[in-house]
């Protein structure tokens, strides 16, 4: 058993599973806006804290998994946020997908209090979180990476140190832009084929064993056949990440032409009643 006191903040679809995997190896402290999301972890031996600040007082490494920039700022900078209770030497590890700018801002605030920061966004979805097979890309000082790596290995299968603070978020946004474009292209191609009278099974066979094959294609085919768009990765999250990627490109004078074209199309899908469905529901766009 590793010896550091561990805290976990944010027990949504991903965070709850990741925290559970940590709890299998050592005691952990937990906090979430709604306590009921922590019930199973508490039953399993986790210690509940009523605020991020009190959890920070009791933890040496704090993992965070929240929705967006605003939620992360609130958890860290709020009146009862992590900074209000953080101790010198504490390492904050952020698994959220947020902008590199916010990452740098919060990392500096933590450093001013004697702590350190690692951005460690993940890919692999809720299944990877459940099975502890996530890919985790870490932006951190080398010593901080060495310190946290054994704990990350309890939640993921591929742990990469990709550079300094902020580089983890940069890689995640680039990767998610590619997967968003894959998803939208696969959805459009399938619907185009159906419009032309092609059989879905024939398209699945040809596309799954040819150059059109992709993770997103397989996901859409599965969801379409089952007519089940219960969110694993929601439209809201996909839209947020695509928007962040385009903003990052603009800030760094990179011409992300396909991404810029895709963003308003996906935003329109989100705004027509699909925000809380799975990202793959984009395939329903042609039904509306």
Automatic annotation (TrEMBL):
Domain 3-hydroxyisobutyrate dehydrogenase-like NAD-binding positions: 166-284
Molecular function per GO: NAD binding; NADP binding; oxidoreductase activity
Stretches assigned to the 6-phosphogluconate dehydrogenase NADP-binding domain: 5-163
UniProt similarity note: Belongs to the HIBADH-related family.
Top-level taxon in the UniProt lineage: Bacteria
Name under which the protein is recorded: 3-hydroxyisobutyrate dehydrogenase
InterPro entries: 3-OH-isobutyrate_DH-rel_CS, 6-PGluconate_DH-like_C_sf, 6PGD_dom2, 6PGDH_NADP-bd, HIBADH-like_NADP-bd, HIBADH-related, NAD(P)-bd_dom_sf
